[in-house]
Amino acid sequence: MTTPLSQPEVWLRGPLPDLSPLLQPLAHALLQAREEVQAALHDFPDDLLPERPAGVASVGFHLRHLAGVLDRMQTYARHEPLSEAQFQFLATEKDGPALPATTTALLRQFSAQVETMLATLRATPEATLPEFRPVGRAGLPSTVIGLLVHAAEHTTRHVGQVLVTARIVRAAAH
User: Fold this and answer.
1) Are 79 and 133 in contact (CB under 8 A)?
2) What dotted CATH number matches 19-173?
């Protein structure tokens, strides 16, 4: 698959600077996800963000969730509890806050979280990757690498859902 600019997929464009070889695939996956979402939702109508064809999650939910998961996984990787603001964001992911209510704002929010995650990947020493990290209120067991990999794979899973849902919603609107 090529991008809209007819470039190879991100993972075939070479290594990213200042990033551990062990974390390159995660960064590549996040960058590819961002490119695909931005291309697919270019000019996506804001009024279609809450649409849920056949009861599936809306495009708006997926965009909020993408940003929220990246933020939460980084917090856990730093061995920190979620903040009250993160819990509030989590509570609004499904139905969304009044703002941002535009596709452009939600894409910007997701893109900013990808950038923050890239900075986290660059700042993560390889020696910390196997370190234990508790997840959630129950303190479920994970590791730094487990959280970072989950952030990338979870992102790609939801991007696939965004791409399909956006096409269905657009087709139904026309």
Assistant:
1) yes
2) 1.20.120.450
